[in-house]
Amino acid sequence: MFDLERWEEIFDTIRKNKLRTFLTGLSVASGIFILVVLLGIGEGMRNGISKEFEGDAANILYIWTGPTSVEHKGLNPGRIIRLRNSDFQTISQKYEDDLEFRSSVYRIWNGMVTYKKESGSYRVEGVLPDYQFLENSSMVKGRYLNYTDHENYEKVVVIGNRVSNDLFKGAEPIGKYIEVSGINFKVVGVFTDPGGEREENRVYVPLSTGQRVFNGSNYINNMAFTLEKADNFEAALAASNKFSAEIDQFLKEQHVVAPEDTRAITINNSLENAKRFYDLMDMIKFFFWGVGICTIIAGIVGVSNIMLIIVKERTREIGVRKALGAEPLSIVGMVLHESIFVTAIAGLIGLISSLALLELVGPIIETEFIANPAVDFRVALTTVIILIVAGALAGFFPAYRAARIKPIVALRDE
Amino acid sequence: MIEIKDLHKSYKTGSNSLHVLKGINFSVAEGELVSIMGSSGSGKSTLLNILGMLDEADSGTYTLDGVPIKNLNEKIAARYRNKFLGFIFQSFNLISYKSAVDNVALPLYYQGLKRKERMDRAMAYLEKVGLTDWAQHLPNELSGGQKQRVAIARALASDPKVLLADEPTGALDTKTSYEVMDLIQKINEEGRTILIVTHEHDIAEMTKRIVNLKDGVIIDDNKVDQIKALQYV
Fold this sequence. Notes:
By secondary structure, chain A is α+β, with helices and mostly antiparallel strands. Chain A contains 14 helices and 14 strands. Chain B has a 6-stranded mixed sheet with strand order 6-7-8-3-9-10, with helices on both faces.
């Protein structure tokens, strides 16, 4: 391998057989190139789609209530079920270790919001500080609500970007007072939400303030939880299904609701929905891998073909070399050395150029469904190595056979 | 130098067995220039191939420079060919993508010589065959006579005991043939043992001994008065 004379001989051969070298290299380089670009676009699509779905924390559970639809323990259907602070507290305490974020929500109906002469009707809710993370909101200005606000019944408010634009027309909102259903609240923050305008059209006040000021007593409209991250999707799904079933049972017992009554207490497990999305992602992944593997197979066949032709073409040369004193092993070594060298260089060229293409063109082709197309470098390198090994194997057998042909037969070959 | 006793060789083609050599006894001393003649199918090329270790005999003994040549594996055969023999072929068998000097240097590569020494030796042999100016040319840029002279230089490069030439003038016109024969005679006069297979009488008469082969046996083996090729050039 490190025999300088051998390398000279190989380079000499490569230099003087440019077309042959070029064709071998092209089939390897294009195979790698296509594979890496495909994998990159596949990854880009995965990223793009998961971005589309990342509006809310993906493993969120929403709980809300409605009128009962089934008679239970002598109680008539149509009875309104309302959640209370105690429900939320019990669940929070019981599942302390399992929950990542939690918040209950008190909805303030007819939320007219006014600043000076501007006013609008927005969705106004009393929430806990964790609600920021449940909604995946991030702050544009100021801060979100915190527990001190909650404990002290502060009259503070965070508003969505859209609300800020509507009411303040670009002026500084922080520290200003706005009227919510006739009561003054101080703006402490402006948030943005990946869910877009619809979710920026909201106004949040501390839960305790909301309940006290708007006669909410200890009622809440819904609750939202996220569970701690699990190792994989299957585990996350199992945990959230278990949690969902347990709190469903708990709440139905608390509020004397029939176990089969799904309208009275509804739990929306977003992970259940996410499963379809994950399945789609898997499908995309499998598709691109399928195409990629087919490309590799085509590449291997191409390389093997060229190797066969090269060895066939060189049969006579091999005969001459043997007549001049080449040992069979040196013949096999020569052919392999050359083929491995060419495929390795070509493979790396294909790899580098495809990575460069992804890097350069990636930002340009970014759309709603393609984001940050990139490829795992190790995967790409592995495919290069697979191709090299395949090329070497494909070259080995004909080379071995050619080296075993008696020189007299090889020399007769026209 | 070469000692052959009771050499047999047959080829199997399907169900038929073709007995090509039927007991050849033959010896060549050092410094001889021998031509082996015969019509096609007489077995002369087969004999040469066996002498060149390119092919194996079925039975009989073959001794080359005191070394018994038998039960050779590929590796040892290759080593012996490199050390003992130089080949000159009818169709030259130069490697098409290598320049003249690289072709000449190739046997030296298999002897394990360093590049610089290979090149120096190869240039010396090219000079000997009068092709110094053509050293960097590829075979397809050379005429037939020039190609054969490159091939002769290559055969000489490894300084072999015996040169084996299989119809060396078969692909050349008469004038070029004589030029090549002149070169071969000169090499012989330096003491090199040379065997030539040919079916051309004028070529055979330029050697010092003619061995006639017919149907796999030697029918006659005579020393002849050598005709110098130089007078025709």
